[in-house]
Design brief:
This protein has 12 helices and 19 strands. It is of the alpha+beta class. The strands form 4 sheets. Strands 5, 6, 10, 11, 12, 13, 17, 18 and 19 form a 9-stranded antiparallel beta sheet that branches. The two termini are 41 Å apart. The relative contact order is 0.12.
Length: 409
């Protein structure tokens, strides 16, 4: 059982360092119904920080399952007027957004994923214009909280209460909820910024990945696309925030159409409430043209066909195998943690804000520069203890970026 004082400390971190809520700003919280204790502390912390209004949107996996099962495809594919009004409000007000992950990794197992995919493909074009208007302008943060269902998946041999407590312990530790969490994140952001500055100074045009598991992949990079990590800056307001707590990554967006070879996943991927396990992806001309998985292969194939660009890469992220998350020895079955345990790639949308002076370009111009645009962005883990990454500079020098799973500098 987490002490109330610890929940307060965690809530304070999420409000002040996660979304960095400003006085007079609105906050939207998205959380499961089993997280009322933490959400209450976040709401209180937000109002103490000067929030104008805090709105909580609750979710419940069993209800989501029922909706997915019993609603018709037509109903699932409909965007109601009140939903559009809510999106308009987001565009006008730009509230900070906090997501608290705690769902059962197997919570949507057995649901008709093709039905959900068809519904999303119909609703996405309707909501995309609103998403484009707020892109890079909002402060947002994804964090986590322990729940019985998630904890039992991670620690199946422990009694439920012990499992919940052990998962809380891991979440708080990897999120740096120590003596002074805000100061710890100030130091951590500085370390990540220094690594990114070095990567940017190399002017890399390509990354080459190799591992004994069969990974042999070349990924082309965009000329004026930067490496970032830790905190980000919201466009317009200039407010600094931390989108992921925890986070260990330095990342960039690769050039669409520039990926050749094969890559093997090193951890299961939790996607749409189901797990895809022991899979590999082969790329030609930047596109995933062949996939294999011991479990969830059809779901993986469906994922990369969500739209015309879902099969292209949107992110390359570097994380030491010797990371705080990986060193826990825990497989979290939650992308927020597993992606920050070691190196990962992402299929789908890239990050437009990584292009130098991105605010000077239109969305179309950013895509022309090589940023992939898709309705999905799905991270999958590829880091291993013997992963080696060579960077090729613009002047064709080879720089060792990773050696035996860890930073080579």
């Amino acid at each position: 059982m987490v002490k109330k004082s610890v929940l307060k400390k965690y809530a304070n971190l999420l409000v002040k360092k996660g979304v960095n809520l400003q006085k007079g700003q609105e906050l939207n919280i998205y959380a499961s119904v089993n997280q009322s204790a933490l959400v209450t502390e976040v709401v209180v912390a937000a109002y103490k920080q000067g929030a104008k209004n805090v709105h909580v949107e609750w979710n419940c996996t069993p209800i989501s399952r029922a909706n997915a099962k019993y609603k018709s495809l037509e109903t699932l594919s409909t965007v109601e007027n009140w939903e559009l009004e809510r999106l308009k409000h987001r565009v006008e007000v730009l509230p900070a957004r906090l997501y608290i992950a705690s769902d059962d990794p197997d919570g949507m197992k057995g649901v008709d994923q093709k039905k959900l995919a068809k519904a999303r493909m119909k609703t996405y074009p309707i909501i995309k214009p609103y998403i484009d208007k707020i892109e890079n302008k909002e402060q947002w943060c994804i964090a986590a909280a322990s729940s019985p269902e998630w904890a039992k998946k991670v620690f199946p041999n422990l009694p439920k209460r012990q499992a919940v407590d052990k998962l809380w312990e891991a979440i708080l530790y990897t999120s740096r909820v120590w003596d002074d969490p805000i100061e710890e994140w100030n130091k951590h952001n500085k370390v990540l910024a220094e690594k990114c500055a070095y990567l940017n100074s190399l002017h890399l045009k390509e990354l080459r990945y190799k591992s004994s598991n069969g990974t042999d992949l070349k990924v082309g990079l965009i000329d004026d696309c930067l490496w970032e990590g830790g905190s980000e800056i919201a466009l317009g307001s200039g407010i600094e925030f931390n989108p992921n707590i925890p986070s260990e990554e330095c990342f960039t967006s690769p050039m669409k159409g520039k990926a050749e070879g094969i890559v093997y996943a090193t951890k299961p991927l939790s996607y749409q409430g189901e797990l895809i396990e022991n899979f590999n992806i082969r790329f030609e001309n930047g596109k995933a043209v062949e996939v294999h998985a011991e479990k969830g292969e059809e779901l993986l194939k469906q994922m990369i066909s969500m739209d015309e660009t879902a099969a292209y890469l949107g992110e390359c992220a570097l994380i030491a195998y010797d990371s705080p998350i990986n060193n826990t020895g825990i497989l979290f079955y939650e992308t927020l943690f597993d992606e920050n345990a070691s190196c990962h790639l992402a299929l789908g949308a890239g990050f437009t804000n990584l292009i130098k002076d991105y605010h000077k370009y239109t969305q179309e111009e950013l895509k022309e520069k090589g940023i992939n645009d898709s309705m999905i962005h799905v991270d999958f883990m590829i880091g291993s203890k013997d992963l080696n990454i060579i960077g090729i500079t613009k002047d064709d020098r080879e720089i060792q970026i990773f050696k035996d799973g860890n930073w080579a500098f």
